[in-house]
Amino acid sequence: MSTHRLDVPRLHRRLDTRRRELGLTWRGVARQTRLAPATFSRIANGQSLEADALVTLLVWLDLDTTIAALIEPGDQPLPCPGCGRVFQPKRDGSVRAHPCRQAAG
Question: What are the residues facing 78 on neighbouring strands?
Answer without folding.
Answer: 87
